Amino acid sequence: MSMNWWGIIVSFGFVFAVLGIAQTLLQAGLVTATVSRKLVHIGVSHWWFLAMYFFDRWQFAIIAPIAFILINLVSYLFRLLPAMEHEVRTRNLGTVYFPISLLILVLLGWVGPLPLWIAGLGILVMGYGDGLASLVGEHFAQRTFRIFGNTKSYLGTAIMFVASAAVVVAFVLLFGSQPANVGWLIAAALATGAVATAIELLTPFGIDNLTVPALTSLFFFAVFI
């Protein structure tokens, strides 16, 4: 069996394992619905590392994202996977937008102009940046503000910036083709973190799971590569 076929098997096993762990923690009362949702959000973003390792053909790499667009839509409509659904029924399709972003970045990485690690950078920025921002902001933030009809916290926004910048540093050190100049690395991390945070703040209608990953990767590629 080829690595691509193994990649499909491992991809589904990994995502369902993340969902299963979150669901178990939720049912045991060890985490709230908000925490379980964000654990899924952060955990699933690591799928990109599996994709980079297993897939060398885009036709295989798109299978899991397309499948989870459909699975997540059905779950949203019928609440099949409570661990990743908002406890209050809303029109926010964030769980559907996330695999759509994966699909877009798979195509940009395997078919389009982006190196695979730069395409993945945006996904991990969304996973850790938005995930940690929501967790910390909802549980510890006291000062909030409104922007485009959304309530944001100053603490959550700061966490989004710091986490996004940290992801940039980690990706450059892990996957950059040559040793990074310290000054360049700091500038790239701060600028990309700021842009990702601004995109998250300014995106209306709760579609930041669509805008943040792709636009962050494209910004980093256009400005720093």
Could you give the topology of this structure?
Elements: H1 3-27, H2 33-45, H3 47-54, H4 58-61, H5 63-78, H6 94-111, H7 116-140, E1 144-147, E2 150-153, H8 154-175, H9 182-202, H10 208-224
Antiparallel strand pairs: 1-2
What does this structure look like?
It is a single chain. This protein is mainly alpha-helical and 225 residues long. The protein has one domain. It contains 10 helices and 2 strands. The protein has helices at residues 3-27, 33-45, 47-54, 58-61, 63-78, 94-111, 116-140, 154-175, 182-202, 208-224, and strands at 144-147, 150-153. It has a two-stranded antiparallel ribbon. Strand 1 and strand 2 form a beta hairpin.
Can you describe this structure in just a few lines?
With 225 residues, this protein is mainly α.
Radius of gyration: 17 Å
Number of strands: 2
Would you tell me the overall average pLDDT?
92
Question: Helix/strand/pairing class, anyone?
Answer: mainly alpha
Q: Please indicate the percent range of residues in DSSP E strands (runs of 2 or more).
A: under 5%
Distance between the termini: 36 Å
Count helical runs.
10
What portion of residues is helical?
A: over 70%
- Widest sheet, order of strands: 1-2
Poorly predicted runs of 5 or more residues:
none
- Report the sheet with the most strands, covering strand number, pairing sense and barrel closure: 2 strands, antiparallel
Overall 3D geometry?
A: globular
How do the SSEs run, as a string of H and E? HHHHHHHEEHHH
Number of domains: 1
